[in-house]
Specification:
Radius of gyration: 20 Å
Largest sheet: 9 strands, mixed
Bound molecules: NADPH dihydro-nicotinamide-adenine-dinucleotide phosphate
Helix content: 25-40%
Distance between the termini: 48 Å
Structural class: alpha/beta
């Protein structure tokens, strides 16, 4: 029925590709195109005997708009799924516009070079105007609204788990459970253990930039920023148990804050073990998280990129990670004049994911919604000219697809709230 061009072949992409191949009725043909084509060829070899989906591969530098436009025009897909890095969001959107094809991704734009003076001037103004200082934000991609609308194309932003599923949970809660939502707490718990003293579960550069940024939340339409890891809570997660979690800035707060302005407070918490935090603080203190190039023995290196080369590849953690994740949202508000609170969440087992697709649960919980988002767009269930996040469409078909494709969810009334 549809042909999908998938860009990137890392941890998340490998799950999205495997799930597209399980869903051959929708994805009759896919092309895997990435910087290192040998990874694409290895995926093709692994999967082609197990699926009816026809798999092609290509080498591409997604920073090169001209080359990418040519590839898209030649392959003529129904949509492009960007599971490369947030650095490529804008170039891939430009190529989709030039080739006249729908666009889907899992993370909002951030620049690779945070010292670029042109980007920095806009960033510093945004920090002042809006009040949060993370490097990633939606303004760059929301600026494509008219271009996609005028071209009659859909851009679906952030269809991973968080952001992605968490925003679909919000739309679902609003549609079926509340007349008014007052607060949203998004809780991301990884109870998995990979046995390394320090490793990240997705791209280390993107992950460490995210978690070392100051925390922030939205209250009455305004951002409140606090020092990184300064707000800590304990929560007893179904399937995992008691964990420490910390307030972080996260991109769905921005989208939900804009699209559900009636919500009075939106927060995001993620669990971290003490070993992770100690390592991260130490690496930060010695300058290893810096994105500013330094000269080392006559060669220019970017410290965080050097660190990435030393750390385990997240795609290699699958066989050794045990335990579960629990990711979801607690909503409070009013229904039929009475106060109500619900918790919608998914529990995912690292080893079950590994058995099914050869990946740990963080890649799995992102790659499955990436496939589902692509399915929503190519089947026309979520098709609207313009640029949208996942809370802006009918949540029901997406929620059904989560149950069908490996991320079943549950709704609990009157959960323990986070103070
Ligand atoms: P990886 O680093 O494992 O994979 C990234 C892939 O993109 C690699 O195959 C890499 O190629 C390729 N790539 C990088 N630059 C280019 C380029 N210029 N041209 C073509 N290909 C390129 O990352 P992850 O799989 O961990 O993460 C993928 C995305 O998923 C990220 O955007 C991340 O932020 C997002 N994410 C979203 C989550 C959510 O819940 N919404 C959660 C987790 C991740 P090479 O093999 O050569 O390095």
């Amino acid at each position: 029925m549809a042909r999908l061009l998938i860009i990137g072949c890392g941890g998340v992409a490998q799950v999205a590709i495997s799930k597209c191949c399980q869903n051959s009725d929708v994805f009759e043909e896919i092309m895997i195109a990435s910087r290192t084509v040998s990874k694409c060829d290895a995926m093709k070899e692994k999967l082609e005997k197990t699926t009816k989906t026809v798999i092609k591969t290509a080498q591409i530098d997604a920073d090169d708009v001209e080359a990418l436009t040519k590839l898209i025009k030649e392959y003529a897909p129904d949509a492009v799924l960007n599971v490369a890095l947030p650095y490529q969001d804008l170039t891939i959107m430009d190529a989709c516009l030039a080739a006249g094809v729908d666009y889907i991704d899992t993370a909002n734009y951030e620049p690779e070079d945070t010292d670029d003076p042109e980007w920095r001037a806009i960033y510093e103004k945004r920090c002042k105007d809006l009040g949060f200082s993370a490097y990633f934000d939606y303004s760059w991609q929301w600026a494509y609204q008219d271009k996609f609308k005028d071209a009659g194309l859909t851009a679906l932003l952030g269809t991973g788990f968080d952001p992605g599923v968490t925003s679909v949970f919000a739309a679902y809660a609003k549609k079926h459970y509340f007349d008014e939502i007052h607060t949203i707490d998004i809780l991301d718990c990884n109870g998995g253990d990979h046995g390394y003293p320090f490793a990240t579960n997705f791209n280390p550069e993107i992950n460490l930039r995210e978690v070392s940024a100051p925390g922030s939340y939205m209250e009455n339409g305004k951002w409140v920023e606090v020092p990184a890891m300064s707000i800590k809570r304990e929560y007893d997660f179904d399937g995992v148990g008691m964990k420490d979690m910390y307030l972080l800035h996260h991109e769905e707060i921005e989208a939900l804050g804009r699209n559900m302005p009636e919500v009075k407070r939106i927060r995001f918490f993620m669990t971290f073990g003490q070993s992770y935090l100690t390592h991260m603080k130490c690496l930060e203190n010695v300058g290893m998280l810096s994105t500013t190039p330094i000269n080392f023995n006559g060669q220019e290196i970017v410290p965080i990129q050097f660190l990435k080369a030393l750390l385990p590849d997240p795609a290699s953690l699958g066989p050794r990670t045990v335990g579960k994740t629990n990711i979801g949202c607690i909503f409070t508000g009013i229904k039929d004049g009475k106060e109500r609170s619900i918790y919608i969440y998914n529990v995912c087992d690292h080893q079950e994911c590994y058995k099914e697709v050869g990946s740990q649960a963080i890649s799995y919980t992102t790659g499955v919604p990436a496939m589902i988002g692509a399915m929503m767009v190519v089947t026309g269930q979520w098709k609207n000219p313009g640029v949208f996040t996942t809370d802006e469409f009918d949540p029901d078909p997406y929620m059904e697809a989560l149950n069908k494709w490996g991320l079943p969810w549950q709704v609990v009334e009157n959960p323990t709230l986070v103070d």
